[in-house]
Amino acid sequence: MEKTNRNSLSDWVKAAMIAFVIYILIRTFFFSSYDVEGESMQPTLEEGNKLVVNKINYQIRDIKRFDIIVFHANSHEDYVKRVIGISGDRIRYKDDWLYVNGEKVNEPYLEKFKEGFPGQNFTGDFTLKEITDTSTVPDGKLFVMGDNRLESADSRHFGYIPVENVVGKVDVRYWPIKEFNLQFKGE
């Protein structure tokens, strides 16, 4: 009887260790959980939202304009922002409208927040050349902005981010429960 208990305990310990290793592998290479801090992505994301970030997504396909990503801002902080410009894009804001490669682009994710600031230039006018010394987004770089343009430290302030700094794309918002969204598009 004692041998059976030892075998059973040994099996449980092995199973727990395997489960732990699988958990570490998934968390390290495929998905991570992130907490939103600050107001820079309001109203799309609020302080305290909990997100699942797909890390493998960008190893398989390219980053797309308007994706919401998490990236390493420095050695001890990660930021969540929206991709506005990808390599080769010419970005300009004029009269609160985004122009990408000369074409006017609608940003529906800003409409709800703009309602609180009628008549105000929400983003501010600029061209890439005015803030980054280049007229197009360089290869291997991204131009990112927060949705709360009045309160966001983003590429307008710190410049382009290297693609290799991208942790992954926000795929799921799981907290608060009432805002649970498995196919999070950030619109």
Put the structure in a nutshell.
The chain is of the alpha+beta class.
Notes on the structure:
Keywords: Cell membrane, Hydrolase, Membrane, Protease, Transmembrane, Transmembrane helix. The protein has 187 residues and is α+β, with helices and mostly antiparallel strands. The chain has a single domain, classed as Ribbon (Umud Fragment, subunit A), CATH 2.10.109.10. Helix content is 24%, strand content 28%. It has five helices and eleven strands, in the order αββαβββββαβαβαββ.
Write the layout of secondary structure elements.
Blueprint: H1 2-29, E1 31-35, E2 50-54, H2 57-60, E3 68-72, E4 78-85, E5 91-94, E6 97-100, E7 103-105, H3 111-114, E8 126-127, H4 128-132, E9 141-145, H5 155-158, E10 161-162, E11 166-175
Antiparallel strand pairs: 1-2, 2-11, 3-4, 3-11, 4-9, 5-6, 5-8, 6-7, 9-10
Keywords: Cell membrane, Hydrolase, Membrane, Protease, Transmembrane, Transmembrane helix
Domain Peptidase S26: 10-175
Transmembrane segments: 12-34
Q: Structural class of the helix and strand makeup?
A: alpha+beta
Strand order of the largest sheet: 1-2-11-3-4-9-10
Poorly predicted runs of 5 or more residues: none
Mean pLDDT: 79
For this structure, the quaternary state is single chain
CATH top-level class:
Mainly Beta
Radius of gyration using CA atoms only: 21 Å
Characterize the main sheet. 7 strands, antiparallel
Per CATH, the superfamily is: Umud Fragment, subunit A
Task: Compute the separation of the termini in Å.
Answer: 61 Å
Query: What is the tally of helical segments?
Result: 5
Report strand %. Answer: 25-35%
- Work out the helicity level: 10-25%
CATH topology (fold) name: Umud Fragment, subunit A
The best one-word shape is elongated
H-E order: HEEHEEEEEHEHEHEE
CATH architecture descriptor name: Ribbon
Count of spatially separate domains: 1
What is the β-strand count?
A: 11
